[in-house]
Write the structure tokens for this entry.
Amino acid sequence: MHHVPGNTLAKLSNGITDGPVLMAAKSHLRNNNPLVIAISTNDGLSGSAENIGRLLNRKNYYFVPFKQDNPITKPRSIVFDPSYICKTLEKALDKEQIEPILL
């Protein structure tokens, strides 16, 4: 698992593999293994929303549940909830997305 900012999320969504983390993710997916994403981005409810939606529809991508970071001062920012990491990993190994995704 790797903390995923918006830039990395966009690269995953568009198949760009220009660094070690993205190459590891590509290799992991090629071997039909689950990829768990712990998202943290300031534009999750704006620019990155399309990329999140795209990955939610792909096989072997699993998200740690996330929520708005600070709705008052950062209304489009989202961050994963670390208390769900172990549960998400367990479900992903069974090829299931933990629910709810959006807290």
Notes: The radius of gyration is 13 Å.
